[in-house]
Design goal:
Blueprint: H1 5-51, H2 56-64, H3 68-71
């Protein structure tokens, strides 16, 4: 049997490209799912704090652990902003 190395090389390249595309698709799907989980969990926490099901101090503690840039998102919009908590750097 005669093996055409050029054809095998092309097939290998196609398979590697297909694998790379599948890996990228999977990684993107995982990233989207992780982002969605964070958004849903955050919304549930904010709702629970507003309803009084979770003490506001929980949110204050979490905001205090955030970077200053992220903590700025909560200034004036939640009870966390009403406390004198310095965000972590």
């Amino acid at each position: 049997m005669v093996v055409d190395l050029a054809k095998l090389g092309q097939r290998k390249a196609r398979l590697e490209a297909s694998l790379a595309a599948a890996t990228t698709t999977l990684r993107d799907a995982e990233r989207r799912a992780d982002s969605r989980r964070k958004i849903v969990a955050g919304a549930a926490l904010l709702s629970a704090v507003r309803e009084g099901a979770v003490p506001a101090e929980v949110l204050v503690t979490l905001v205090a652990r955030m970077s200053a840039r992220d903590a700025e998102l909560f200034v004036g919009s939640t009870s966390a902003a009403q406390h004198d908590v310095e965000p972590s750097q």
